[in-house]
């Protein structure tokens, strides 16, 4: 930002144009850079000692009055996402995105320096049970079938170890149909890594070195409360703090009450010795604490059949300031043991073969011992910048409901009858009963709808929705758990509609 002045007598056109300028307009300025007079120096900005004496000013692009002030860090709530392109102009917000780019480069350089091979894995995959619900994408080529978007590259990176790539990583996109929280988005970025012939502690050492490097390079003002990172067992955390991701800096209740928290302090720690399995009382079955591919601890493996809940896993978490930043473990590299774990958590032989035959078969061809981790890039940056919302470090985040709100939308709540025809997005909420035929740009259904939907862009049916009617559009996503009885017509812009 630089101050521009003009002489009305010498350059009247430039002077007149200068009077017409207001915030956010795009202009070009021809002139001479001069030192300011001593009484007009502004030491609050980097260019405060100079100004441009303009002899020509050209308006390139005019601007409407923004819906919120760009030069003030006031809270703008929903407008921060709806007008994200304006919100990103704010220096503090823009700086977070620049830091994200720098963090990614540091991580890439660090892992390449340790001879990791960066490999991309597929985005369109087969649905497999990994904890959260999948996002589904309909296949045009195979009517009635769906791809799943990856919750993580877990099985692919294990296959890469079996293929002989000893060290793999990628900056991966992960998509999980989970409710948004202040520290979680339905799509996020993880620093995904896997290594062969490795023990749990070796993975932890690499992570500690990487987290330390990122913090010291990008945030040199931060102070580590403890180095090396301390290690706590899962049971110690639960017994002492009541959570497996405690904030170890202070007695937080007192700290918050008296505003004693030093936001320049970071306290990384490892949580180890998680149980492998826990009893799910609702489903009357054993569930994995993390996921089904985690290797049990050798010392407790003999308890797997007799006392499975006493088996300790090789899983560990990295926590910092009350947040979980990463989970990792050694993986099962025996086909027989992997089948046994799958059966213990309630998968039938048919499900095991249908969903995991490719991995189980690969494990029979000389699978090396291997393990890895997947730190969340977004949450790491959120913690290090000190913000309390993960949306602040993502260029185009989702809203609390999981929408990317860059346009106006019509929201239907309560009971409603009547047709809707619009070029905007339509959101049908959970409350009430809706009887309507909808024709819109895109449609999101969270509740009960009886009627036909036609969308120019996409139709999304959430997991708790109830829909009866015809669905027509180029992109349809029906989340697992939705009650849908419809005729579905997937329209390809290049071809005739395909009925399913």
The percentage of residues in β strands lies in 25-35%
Write down the Rg.
28 Å
- Report the strand count: 29
Distance between the termini: 57 Å
Largest sheet, if any? 12 strands, mixed
Number of helices: 11
Label the structural class: alpha/beta
Helix fraction bin:
10-25%
Mean pLDDT: 89
Residue stretches low in confidence (pLDDT < 50, at least 5 long) are: 494-500
Global geometry: globular
Features:
8-stranded mixed sheet, 11 helices, 29 strands, 29% strand, globular, disordered C terminus
Question: If you had to describe this structure to a student in words, what would you say it looks like?
Answer:
- The chain is α/β, with parallel strands linked by helices and 500 residues long.
- 23% of the residues lie in helices and 29% in strands.
- The chain contains eleven helices and 29 strands.
- The chain has helices at 12-20, 79-82, 84-87, 91-113, 154-162, 200-218, 234-241, 252-257, 335-344, 349-362, 377-385; strands at 3-6, 26-35, 50-61, 117-118, 136-138, 146-148, 167-175, 187-196, 223-224, 231-233, 265-266, 268-272, 277-280, 285-288, 316-320, 323-330, 370-373, 409-412, 416-417, 420-421, 425-428, 433-435, 438-445, 448-450, 453-461, 466-473, 476-478, 483-490, 498-499.
- Strands 18, 19, 20, 21, 22, 23, 24, 25, 26, 27, 28 and 29 form a twelve-stranded mixed sheet that branches. It has an eight-stranded mixed sheet with strand order 4-7-8-17-16-15-12-10, with helices on both faces. Strands 1-3-2 form a three-stranded mixed sheet.
- The protein is globular, with a radius of gyration of 28 Å.
- It starts with a strand and ends with a strand.
């Amino acid at each position: 930002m630089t101050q521009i002045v003009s002489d009305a007598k010498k350059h009247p056109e430039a002077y007149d144009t200068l009077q017409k300028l207001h915030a956010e307009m795009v202009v070009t300025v021809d002139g001479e850079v001069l030192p300011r007079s001593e009484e007009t120096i502004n030491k609050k900005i980097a260019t405060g000692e100079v100004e441009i004496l303009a002899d020509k000013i050209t308006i390139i692009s005019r601007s409407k009055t923004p819906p919120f002030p760009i030069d003030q860090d006031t809270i703008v709530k929903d407008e921060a996402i709806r007008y994200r392109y304006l919100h990103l102009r704010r220096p503090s917000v823009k700086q977070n995105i620049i830091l994200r780019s720098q963090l990614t480069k540091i991580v890439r350089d660090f892992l390449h320096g340790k001879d990791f091979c960066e490999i991309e894995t597929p985005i369109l995959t087969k649905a497999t049970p990994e904890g959260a619900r999948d996002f589904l994408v309909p296949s045009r080529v195979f009517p009635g079938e769906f791809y799943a978007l990856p919750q993580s590259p877990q099985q692919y990176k294990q296959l890469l170890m079996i293929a002989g790539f000893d060290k793999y990583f990628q900056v991966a996109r992960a998509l999980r149909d989970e409710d948004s929280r202040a520290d979680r988005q339905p799509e996020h970025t993880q620093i995904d890594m896997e290594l062969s012939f490795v023990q749990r502690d070796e993975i932890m050492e690499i992570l500690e070195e990487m987290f330390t490097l990122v913090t010291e390079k990008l945030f040199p003002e931060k102070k580590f409360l403890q180095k090396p990172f301390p290690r706590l067992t899962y049971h110690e955390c639960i017994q002492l703090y009541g959570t497996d991701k405690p904030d170890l800096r202070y007695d937080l209740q007192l700290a918050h009450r008296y505003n004693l928290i030093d936001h320049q302090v970071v306290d990384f720690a490892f949580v180890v010795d998680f149980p492998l399995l826990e009893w799910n009382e609702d489903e009357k079955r054993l569930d994995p604490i993390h996921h089904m591919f985690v290797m049990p601890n050798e010392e407790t493996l003999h308890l797997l059949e007799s006392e499975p809940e006493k088996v300790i896993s090789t899983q560990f978490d990295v926590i910092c300031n009350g947040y979980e930043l990463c989970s990792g473990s050694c993986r099962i590299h025996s086909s027989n043991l992997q089948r046994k774990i799958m059966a213990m958590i309630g998968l039938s032989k048919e499900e095991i073969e249908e969903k995991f035959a490719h991995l189980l078969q690969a494990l029979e061809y000389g699978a090396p011992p291997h393990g890895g981790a997947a730190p969340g890039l977004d949450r790491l940056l959120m913690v290090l910048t000190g913000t309390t919302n993960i949306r602040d470090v993502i260029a185009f985040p989702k809203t609390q409901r999981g929408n990317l709100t860059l346009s106006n939308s019509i929201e239907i709540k309560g009971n409603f009858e009547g047709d809707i025809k619009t070029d905007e997005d339509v959101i049908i909420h959970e409350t009430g009963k809706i009887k309507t035929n909808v024709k819109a740009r895109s449609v999101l259904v969270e509740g009960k709808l009886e009627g036909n939907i036609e969308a120019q862009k996409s139709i999304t049916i959430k997991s708790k929705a109830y829909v009866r009617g015809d669905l027509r559009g180029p992109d349809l996503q029906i989340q697992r758990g939705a009650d849908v009885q419809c005729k579905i017509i997937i329209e390809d812009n290049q071809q005739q509609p395909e009925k399913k």
